[in-house]
Amino acid sequence: MTKGKSHHPQAYGDEAYWDNRYSQDAGSFDWYQRYSGLSPLINKYVAKTNRVLMVGCGNAVISEDMVNDGYQDIVNIDISQVVIDAMVKKYKDVPQLQYLRLDVREMKLFKDSSFDSIVDKGMFDSLMCGASAPYSAARMLEEVRRVLKPGGVYMLITYGDPRVRMSHLKGPDMNWSIVLHVIPRPGSKRAAESSSRVVTDPVLLSDDGTLGPQFALEDPDLHYVYVCTKEGTAKPAVPDKKKKAPAKK
User: Fold this and answer.
1) Calpha distance 128→144 (Å, rounded)
2) Residues 58-74: pLDDT tens digits?
3) Nearest residue to 120 (alpha-carbon basis) of 173, 194, 46
């Protein structure tokens, strides 16, 4: 997560911390997984015609890789104005990518049900390492759910196993339908091992949060992907009353 550097965890929710970090370290960095490792899952759950929100985008190249794979509309947000300015400049000639300075805990810029899909690669975990973690995490999930369309998918990529993440995802008024996938951490022993398990096959979640003998909880070689579908159906489009009816022939 931190490229080997030591930071005060309470700073993770602060704009000043991230502005300073991105000012000192301008090179691109993808937390946890690159697109190549996530593409089977993203392709499975996120249509390439979807309007996608990438929360806590930082200076990662995953959105660029998604565009190269055919995705057409990705809005990227981050709390750091420094990194947003850098990414706007970098991708000024890529119309499929938009970058905005925004706090994921307060996304008033977006109307309800603005996005088909939301991808979170480390944003939730970052808030969980910061000050007022439970409040920040709850506010984020409320906003994520608000701006996501009914039937839309929130994909959470995290190091948190079900015992420490399901309590948040199953919080009051969340009403998610959740499917879990487990993928090996790049460069780990698990990643080097051959396995007959297909990444796109869901992992059975037990009531106590355990995953069976194949997966040990708190395994540092694993990342967890929670695919959370917002229950409900999309509302039909409301006709524009100002438009005149076509003339009868």
Assistant:
1) 16
2) 999 999 999 999 999 99
3) 46
